[in-house]
Amino acid sequence: MPATIRDVAHLAGVSVSAVSKVVTNADNSIRVSDETRQRIQQAIKKLHYRPSIRARSLHSGRAQMIGLISDRDTFIVPYAYLVSERSVECLLKRGYVTTALLYRRGDDEALARIADVIDERRCDGLLLMVEEEERIRAAAAARAVPTVTINPAEAHPYDSVIFDEFDNVRLAFTCLRDAGCRRIGYVDFTKQPARHATVMQRRAAYLRLCHAQAVTPQFLSEDYAEIDAARTPRDLRMIPEGIITYNDTIAQKLISRIYRNRAIDPRRFNIVSAATDMFLDRMPLRISGVALPIEAMAEAAVDMLLRRIEHGGQHVKTTSIAGVLSMRESVHPLRTARRKDMARA
User: Fold this and answer.
1) How many domains would you assign to the chain?
2) Backbone Cα Rg of the chain
3) What is the rounded average pLDDT of the residues 292-298?
């Protein structure tokens, strides 16, 4: 027979309630001495104890289920998949299972079925990574189901976890300035029909930094026309020597255009991504940039959601997660020669 919570308590020499506190509070928010916690964890490992989600559900009156809702286009984006994966891991540690509710954009029937699941209170809370969310939010609000949105497409007055876009661009901008770049450009993707909040925020951050540093803004179009058309020395001077891109994929496309134009010396350029996709490290060319805090975003979203489930009624909160500059190979490794000259001086 599988071990029970009483077996764990007996082996650890503690009460059943002490074991329950350790098992149900992965974030250590309930105080248990380190010595007691260690004894309980050793007993759990020795007995291969696994808490019964069904029993916990009956005791608490909750489903012990979290709904992860996303449209399929968003879910296949690598960062979204990694956030989802980490969220599931965090929820399992806290005794919750996750169900993925996916739909295709514009599929009213699927959205109606998801709204029915919410209305029936099959989930204790919801993690949203969606573009079309009004119907989902209305269903959640009607049944008072706690909801947290991860990296929302638009700014809104709801619980959410977002990337600190200004700080991410600031890190990229400062990196290029420290490398000696006087003209810093930005690959502008705001002309696309779908304008995600992160795209607009990064562009706004770039403009603010240019103003603060007395740098003239220079935008490169998304079709890289400036790179393709550069032929004469004057054309080349019009292209900024430092370029901030939206992510690694866009940086790769930009680099391929630079190498395709034989009139351009690739060593003239430094390219930094404002959102480095660390999962692309396997690719031959590795872009320096700001690493997205995937794990921190997932953990913050799960923690916020479970606090809402446990306590409820708290004010709306938005948590902003900043990235970390990751120095890796770019077209030219950030003026290595110039840095050595500066060091000698």
Assistant:
1) 3
2) 25
3) 88
**Six-digit token pair at 128?**
């949203």
List, for residues 71-107, the tens digit of each pLDDT value. 888 888 878 888 999 999 999 888 888 999 999 888 8
What one-character DSSP code corresponds to residue 184?
A: E
Task: Please tell me the number of Cα atoms within 13 Å of 52 on its side-chain side.
Answer: 12
CA 113 to chain centre: 27
CA distance 311 to 170: 36
One domain for residues 150 and 109? yes
- Does residue 317 sit in the same domain as residue 185? no
Return all residues near 85 (Cβ < 8 A) that are at least 6 apart: 298
* Shared domain check, 218 and 337: yes
Q: Euclidean distance between the first and final Cα of the chain, in Å?
A: 73
Tokens standing for 38? Answer: 């260690």
What CATH number has the domain bearing residue 178? 3.40.50.2300
16 and 69 part of one domain: no
- Within 9-140, strands assigned E span 65-71, 97-103, 125-129
Q: Per residue in 184-207, pLDDT tens?
A: 999 876 655 556 778 888 889 999
Q: Are residues 170 and 159 in the same domain?
A: no
Give residue 42's domain range: 5-51
